[in-house]
Design brief:
Elements lengths: L5 E4 L6 E4 L1 H9 L10 H8 L9 E4 L6 E4 L12 H10 L9 H4 L3
Antiparallel strand pairs: 1-2, 3-4
């Protein structure tokens, strides 16, 4: 199979970059289905842990009504809490402790 250099557009910065024939051969050998989406600079930034932009959504807390922001897009019908109310709820309902197995209860 013959590969030729292709020009792609980075989904992060919008710059054009070359997807070389050698890189295409590598992708083909590894059976990767998708072309790369990021230029080398943006990929390196991601690997280094460069700041990722998280979507901030303004909401009103379902419990106290205070306006705040959350780092996700809320799902319809699910309550969204501010940090204070969320932490209070976590204290009231800590993560369920591992339940005892029947043999530990003596009912095995």
């Amino acid at each position: 199979m013959e590969f030729q250099d292709r020009i792609l557009k980075c989904s992060d910065c919008g710059a054009e970059f070359v997807f070389t024939a050698g890189e295409q051969l590598f992708f083909h050998e590894k059976q990767f289905k998708n072309d790369p989406k990021h230029c080398k600079q943006c990929k390196a930034k991601r690997v280094r842990g460069g700041s990722r932009v998280r979507p901030e959504t303004r909401i009103n807390c379902s419990q106290c009504g205070e306006e705040t922001t959350v780092p996700f897009k809320p799902t319809q019908g699910r309550p969204v809490l501010c940090r204070v109310c969320f932490q209070q709820q976590q204290k009231q309902h800590p993560a369920s402790e591992p339940s005892l197995a029947p043999q530990q209860l003596g009912t095995a």
